[in-house]
Each structure stands twice: as structure tokens, then as C-alpha cells.
Amino acid sequence: xxxxxxxxxxxxxxxxxxxxxxxxxxxxxxxxxxxxxxxxxxxxxxxxxxxxxxxxxxxxxxxxxxxxxxxxxxxxxxxxxxxxxxxxxxxxxxxxxxxxxxxxxxxxxxxxxxxxxxxxxxxxxxxxxxxxxxxxxxxxxxxxxxxxxxxxxxxxxxxxxxxxxxxxxxxxxxxxxxxxxxxxxxxxxxxxxxxxxxxxxxxxxxxxxxxxxxxxxxxxxxxxxxxxxxxxxxxxxxxxxxxxxxxxxxxxxxxxxxxxxxxxxxxxxxxxxxxxxxxxxxxxxxxxxxxxxxxxxxxxxxxxxxxxxxxxxxxxxxxxxx
Length: 322
Hints:
Layout: H1 3-6, H2 10-13, H3 29-37, H4 46-49, E1 52-58, E2 67-73, E3 83-89, H5 103-113, E4 116-120, H6 132-146, H7 148-151, E5 153-163, H8 165-180, E6 187-191, H9 216-227, E7 254-259, H10 265-277, E8 282-287, H11 302-319
Parallel strand pairs: 3-4, 3-5, 5-6, 6-7, 7-8
Antiparallel strand pairs: 1-2, 2-4
Helix pairs in contact: 6-8
């Protein structure tokens, strides 16, 4: 066993062989998107199948197309009580993925927390550079607030979150929403958020992280696609890169999780540190021996069981207003 693989938790090693190499480029990106589009529906228990799912198209930013979203509502009627809501933003390095791939987890949030879930199928880079995806996500946040009465939602209990690039988009959305001041967000649920274009480009390399699944090379491509220019320079638009935002005050509380071998380890810890310095409540979890996307190793691994329990508990507290 090579030295790098020995750093991986034993329960997560075998799954490394399931990840195909991602030789991302503008010429190959369509082929890598194909598996997401053609992925067969996952089998699901009755409790998740009972969650109501609806495909909707809501108005985008001026001059932009409508935004495709998946809307999930719990099977049980809420009565007169208002429900909380969770705006989910999928991952995929800014260039891959779609809302459908998180169907099971979004059904689980709705079923377990009794909340409305809206998952955004934002436009992908490089075809749509910044601020296209952020604007799509903001349109979804605005729609949740504007339709709160019709959906039976408490607008003071709307949380946002996502994985990897989705987590990065969530933070960019929170900063944008704070600056505009129209639509409050109560919480951010961030799983290995992709926050800094300098990681893997101009920032010093970490000696351990980024060897598996999502590497510095892939990160440079993803960020370059979003920015429409080379990542890591002093010319990038700061609004596109959450880690470059000079003022994080006024952002919502956050739950941040990341693997100890994840390329995003340092940027995620630094982001948590900056929030904490402002008195913003942050729960930070670093999973030993875990690489980026280790959840695909299976929900039954002890690492995923522990993380999922913590994420569920954190989001429940936030949506209950505790």
C-alpha cells in the first residue's frame, strides 16, 4: 500500500477504486456530465417515496432563463403550523452535477425534519460563468420567501446549504443576500465547501490534502471555468470567491464539515476561524482519514453515520429556532 493511501481511514479505502479519474477540460466536460443525466433512479424506502416531489421553473434574474428546481414537501400535512425550509445547492466542482442527484438526501431532509426543501438546478460553468449560478440560487431564495404564505413556510426559518461547489455557492449566496438585505437566511449547512480559488493554484500546497478524488488540477479547472479566467491571480472578481470576501460580518451561523485529507481542509478551517472571530456561531467537524466526497463510500461507514447524525441534529436545531 502506498504511503498516501495509508492515510485514508480503513473503512474508506476500498471506495477510492470506485472514483473514475476526472480529466476535466472544456472538450471532455460533456462526457463527464453524461452519467449524472442518465443515472437510474435510486430505490427508496416508503417513508422517502411518500415525500412529494415537484419539478418547477421559477423566474431567473433579469435577462436570464427560468431556473429549474425540485421542490420537496413532507407527506404529512402541517396543519396550521408553519414549516421551515431548506434551500439545497448540489456539488460538482462548478461544472458537473444536477439537482436530481441529491434526490434521496433531500427527501430525507423533508421526511425527517418536516421541512420544505428546494433544490436548485443552477446553470453550470464554463458555459455560464459567474455570476450566473449565484443569480440562479438567489432567485430560488427569493422565490421561497415570496411564496412563503402559499407554501406554508416560516420565512424566518429558511436555511441554505450544499456540498463541495454547492457549499461554495451557498456561502456566495449568503454574502450576496446579506449585501442586498432583502431575504434573510437563518443557517448554513456546508459539507466540504469549495471557497477559495487560490487552493491548488497560487496558495502554498498542503503536504497531505488533495491527493484523492478532487485534486489541485481539477480545482484549478473548476475555478477557472466559474471565473472565466485563470484561478489564483489578483485579477479575479472577489464577489465570486467567498474566501476573498473582506467582511464576513452578518453571515448566518454555520455547520461546516470536511475530511482531514480533503483539498478544502485549510480553506474551510480558515473560513470557520474568520466567522468565529466575528462572534458567529460555527460548528466545525474534521473527519480523520477522509477524502473529498467520502460519503460515496457508503452511508453505513462509521464516518458517514457519525457525520450524518451531526448534520441532521445541527439542521434540526437551526430550523427549530434553537
